[in-house]
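Lab notebook: predicted structure, single chain.

Context: the supervisor wants predicted structures on file for every construct in the current expression panel, including those that have not yet been purified. This is the next one on the list. No modifications to the sequence; it matches the entry in the shared construct table.
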Amino acid sequence: MRLTSFNIGLTVFVSLFVTQAVHAAYEQWEVIEFEFEAQHSQDFPFEVEMGAVFSHIDSVASMRVPGFYNGGNQWLIRFSPPEVGKWEMTTYSSLVELSGKSKTFEVVKSSNPEQKGPVMVDPANRQKFMYADGTPYFALAFELDWLFALDHDNADDIPRTREILGHVAANGFNQVVMNVYAYDVRWGKSEQMLPKHDFSKPNTFPFLGTNEEPNHSALNVEFFQRFDRVIEHLAERGIIAHLMIYVWNKKVNWPEPDSDEDNRYFDYVVKRYQAYPHLIWDVSKEALAYGRDDVSYIKRRVERLRKLDGHGRLVTVHDYLYCSTHPETVDFISVQDWRPNIHSVMWDTLKRYPRHPVFNIEHGGYERTDYRVFDGSYIDPIECLRRNYLCVFAGVYSTYYWQNSSWYNVITDLSSLPEDKQPRFDLYKHLAQLFSDYNFHELEPAQFAWLSYVLTNHEDTYLLYVPDDMIAINSDFHAILGKTVTYKWFDPLNGVYSDPETREMKVPWFSVQKPELMNGQFAVLIVEIAGS
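Prediction complete. Output recorded below exactly as produced.
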């Protein structure tokens, strides 16, 4: 059994002939893998039902977690305990020899300070994300559709995966939007592209056969075993895997919707990956955009997923039409909106869903590379950055795209590019830092007289987005009247704060000049009430 640093020491070998009640200690939110060996090969192993009921002995908590076939005569159950204390596992199965096995084990608090548990919606602040331990989660996502393919042909290591995710993690991104599988696109082929960067038409497939000549009657276990390495490395990096189970515009030869083959694939993905606490489910990229299915199909997929996922991970659908018509079925609203007035559009969307976070999964900004892959509507690095800020200042979360990583053409070694062609990942490190210094979880959008876009906690902190062509703030600002305020500027292009200045607000008029060094670019003005 292959072990990684993410789950090393957490694999349990269970005899199928003697019921065991061995006590062992594991850690909260870690992935525990229970391995089972059948005596005989099965003609239809993917049709074998098996799993376990996990019961917390000191409370009423109980979780029904499905297992999955892992090749040969092996079945696995993955479980991530949400609570500390004593647990009991009892298996069930349509295969007699896999049923009725039990184990009791102890779960202690995690020794890993970076392990905060799964992402959830804050029950006290329904438009914000948090980790299960209560830590706020400021989602800053990065799309990598072909992440699964970077090292699929390497049985021993995932060097390309580690390289690109190293850049992602080092620059403040904490979520990767990714496909389980993608094949090819109808755009962006270029003679300038080096073959080593072209991951279209990968020679791997989640089913038997190939994408060109598929055999949907069974699944390719090796595909998923190698995909495990990607999911586990994201966990090691502390990056959330936003996993899109389907994608319709990447030339994948999928089974017919609602067929046995379709259900087998969908169920297997949910069974195999639900235990990972750093996972978010997304039924399909652009779910209703290409005529393959309808709203009722996606709704049935969501219902099927929730029934099968014993761990209850967050669920969304990469399609605003679906989310807007069935918001009660998703945990957060995904929006794909490219309009130039993105701040007002996003703020209006946020107001419609007071019990849901809103996530602009595509805002039309696709930062350019050394040649055109797909330009979207905005390619300039600063303009792409600006659109992310405008989303955030509207109270919603956002995603970044770079044309040399978000689709089939993936460059993992950024130093191989000329300096002027390298992506500006560093700009997002500053964005992440700003909303670490000023907790996004406590802020919401607001408007005061003639001030520019504002995020505030309505007590002592006001962040003002100041556009490129705005040279000063000049407005009534009654919220700080009679207060002593300290203000400073933040430069989004280098992450530097200006020296703070203090002012007694004896009149309601607030006038502050943008620093000369920031003229011609957007900036953030931070106003804090002293002594609050």
